[in-house]
Design a protein that fits this description.
With about 200 residues, this protein is mainly α. The chain has helices at about 5-25, 45-75, 95-115, 125-155, 160-200, and strands at about 30-35, 40-45. About 75% of the residues lie in helices and about 5% in strands.
């Protein structure tokens, strides 16, 4: 590969990272607030774009795109569901944003590592299945980090009993799990169609 080709690849990667960082930010504004008690939980399309970032960009670039989104929000741009700024790390729900970062990496890693079937009968079905495997594992990672951070904030920072905070997080996750699982299937279907075209461009 020539130096010009390498430079073109780097430019494409930067553009794709920026695009997915923007999509994750847009996803924060496409949301439904669920009336869970005592605190409402929010279901948004951010998870869909995190899934696609990992599936289409791979582990390194997928995590970089989500990391860029987090940095933009932490410097003060209101791209998170409830605003932005460095103080956002003290919100109990910030762990779910960290979960996005870890999940994008895990999904990308599994997408890269799971074997691909050559063109032929059943290849498209297997592509969906292997992307879905990565998505479900990423969903577990995302929820685990989100709930763990929730517990940490309630036990070490906030005055509310940690067990109550953990109960809130689990109740909220049970409310949003099925919609998020549906987004996993949608993302796997989209990525199975988009990956061949994107691989040609890159």
């Amino acid at each position: 590969m020539s130096g010009q080709d390498k430079a073109r690849m780097r430019t494409i990667d930067i553009v794709l990272c920026g695009l997915f960082a923007a999509l994750v930010a847009v996803g924060a504004f496409i949301r439904i607030t669920l009336p869970t008690q005592p605190y409402p939980f929010t279901f948004s399309l951010q998870w869909l774009f995190v899934l696609l970032a990992g599936m289409l960009l791979g582990a390194r670039l997928g995590a970089m795109s989500v990391g860029a989104y987090l940095l933009v929000g932490l410097v003060g741009v209101p791209v998170f569901v409830h605003g932005g700024g460095p103080q956002y790390i003290f919100r109990a729900g910030f762990g779910f944003l960290l979960g996005f970062l870890a999940a994008a990496y895990v999904i990308g890693l599994l997408t890269e590592k799971l074997p691909r079937r050559q063109d032929g009968e059943g290849s498209h079905g297997w592509e969906f299945v292997r992307l879905m495997i990565g998505a479900v594992v990423g969903l577990v990672v995302y929820y685990f980090i989100g709930i763990a951070y929730y517990y940490f904030m309630y036990s070490c920072v906030l005055e509310t009993p940690a067990e109550w905070g953990l109960g809130i997080a689990i109740a909220g996750c049970l409310t949003t799990f099925l919609p998020d699982l549906a987004l996993c299937a949608i993302a796997a279907l989209l990525a199975s169609r988009l990956r061949p075209a994107l691989e040609q461009v890159r």
